Amino acid sequence: MKFTDGYWMIRKGYEVQNPADVRDIVTDGSSMTVFAATKRIERKGDTLNGTLLKATYSSPMPNVIRVTLNHHKGRVKKGPEFEIGTQPTEVQISEQEEAVVLQSGKLSVRVGRGKGWDVGFHYDGTRLTGSNYRGPGYIKDPQEKPYFREQLELGVGEYVYGLGERFTPFVKNGQVVDIWNEDGGTSSEQAYKNVPFYLSSKGYGVFVNHPERVSYEIASENVSKVQFSVEGETLEYFIIGGKDPKEVLDNYTKLTGKPALPPAWTFGLWLTTSFTTDYDEATVNHFVDGMAERDLPLSVFHFDCFWMKEYQWCDFEWDKDMFPDPEGMLRRLKEKGLKICAWINPYIAEKSILFDEGMENGYLVKTADGSVWQWDMWQAGMALVDFTNPDAVAWYQSKLATLIDQGVDCFKTDFGERIPTDVVYYDGSDPYKMHNYYTHLYNKAVFELLEQRLGKNEAALFARSATAGGQQFPIHWGGDCSSTYESMAESLRGGLSLGLSGFGFWSHDISGFENTATPDVYKRWVQFGLLSSHSRLHGSSSYRVPWLFDEEAVDVVRVFTKLKCSLMPYLYNSAVESSVRGLPMMRAMLLEFPDDPTTHALDRQYMFGESLLVAPIFNEEGSVQYYVPEGRWTNLLTGDVVEGGRWHKENHTFMTLPVLVKPNSLIAFGREDSRPDYDYADGVQLHLFELEDGAAAKSVVSNTAGEVELTVSVKHEGGKLSILSEGAGKSWNLVLRGISEVSGIDGGSSEQGSQGIIITPAASAGAVTVTL
């Protein structure tokens, strides 16, 4: 929201007061509060009839500083509020003649004394950003409505990322962003997942602790500042430091919650009925059996909306006309090795048998006069479950529990964005704040039920909407995209932005949701989709099985599904890291290469885990141009070596694309290529790529519970490879990619393989030495 008219003038009808004169700084050992007048105080009489703004600085955990700006703090506060994590923190406050400094870990804030406003944030002695002249502002609009804003410095060449899943340009500089969940598809500035957190290329993050609308002006209203504002008398935000962007995300997700570790089976291929298509058990079996007959590994089958009868969403009852024996059908599907997902949303249509039950018991959101809030958009007479009511939560969960008992393993938690603000909640929550936060309560209720019924690390959603903290309930997908290359690219931008907002796991509708893709778009999107965290074939009005496109599409699905299954030892360890550190599996290049400025604006390629570079192809010609950081990289699919530190342009068939392995990497391949969940450590094959002299590589193999089973490290020194292993004693071997012969081996044996020498350690050996 803009408050100024150019750089000098204030918009007509607005009044802006800025801190102009620091009158006092009060410390209490763990925080400091700054009192600042909004005009210069030259004599005692100037203190009368004026405004005093307050800024309090504290720290909830090391390397994080909380900033609370307020005008009148005596106002009644209504929830909801984000859940903020805390840790024991040693805060140091030093009072000097010119300034007072509060330090937490390596992060500090310095507030200057005296005239003017001079606040700087530093990490390990380096200035990150600051708030200065005309930065904070207490504002009244022409209707006397109050706002608070902050303006933080934006340095020369500094880029801003994140703010949720945004499909606009990846670098947010120059954009106006409102944190307000909406159902706008992937081709607009609206977003399903709005997160008031941004990450800077300078290596710090800023989280605005407000679940309501937060309005950002990013190098827009003031081209050298990031401005954010909220309605009200208070503005609170956190500055988050770290030694690099990865550590910043780790600290941010310590603050707002770590992603849960999804079950291993969720990483396989999902197939759905699509949205408005006709289907019954025979249709489902035709698809499932057709996949098996064509040797296409399938892990999850999803029933979209019309598993329930039309006009009755949600009543959580199978349409008996189409599914007369749902329990038997689900049992038969599970006997084929499949997991089952069912579509739900948080709305109760008036024709649902649950409407009267919810209305009579007070489980539905109400209007000011006590009526049930309803409208006809999406579902006729649609009402909204009130998740602020514990009894309503238990009621909703009980309906889902019945489905779990029938054999459903997970839920697609659709919608959650169309939330009204002229309503009354059971617990008195502010409906304006609840607009974004509603989805958090919705997904939390479903996720916690799955954890209770199925066990920890067995819960999974397929969620569309979210806000800060929603990363705790994976998985999320990108919403309604079109079946075009442009929409494929915008989907990737959204996923990379979400990943830089603390979300570890992300998916998208392979080949697009709206319309039906051409065969070339389908095949290129299959490549991208199966090199994503989670992979789902889904659409709107047509089926998405590959043989409906062409026979080559069948081959492409087979090759890339099997590739993903075989990569699961590497991928699942990356997933474990995501759950521990809050890092995305699909990483913007800058996250792995923050010191390479060429990576800072890249949004058509990504790192899949820390070692694989993926550059999807976005055109029918099969051409791709991508950037490779320094070093000798190896194409995982072709074996070609690519020199880094430069751009490359290539052409690819539908069976290949740039999937490059970073030098000095040890990639774990599993013995299975037909399912994603198996014993990753048993028979694992570790592929060593371009290990430079003096360098080391390590691979960790975890089991499906996220526990480490095998660790192998390799060091190259003076023409010798020293290999050390630690683990459960299961068989494994090592492939020296691109190396055709060795001079000797101690502690194991070697043989020639198609991709390089294969080293097999002796059963009793804890160490192997290979002479090159």
Automatic annotation (TrEMBL):
Species the sequence originates in: Paenibacillus medicaginis
Classification via NCBIfam families: PRK10658.1
Domain named Glycoside hydrolase family 31 N-terminal: residues: 56-216
Family from the record: Belongs to the glycosyl hydrolase 31 family.
Domain Glycoside hydrolase family 31 TIM barrel intervals: 259-573
Highest taxon above the source species: Bacteria
GO molecular function, one term: alpha-D-xyloside xylohydrolase
Glycosyl hydrolase family 31 C-terminal domain span: 582-667
Keywords recorded for this protein, A-Z: Glycosidase, Hydrolase
Designated name of the protein: Alpha-xylosidase
Gene that specifies this protein: yicI
Pfam families: Gal_mutarotas_2, Glyco_hydro_31_2nd, Glyco_hydro_31_3rd
Gene3D superfamilies in the cross-refs: Glycosidases, glycosyl hydrolase (family 31), Golgi alpha-mannosidase II
Positions of transmembrane segments: none
Enzyme nomenclature, EC number: 3.2.1.177
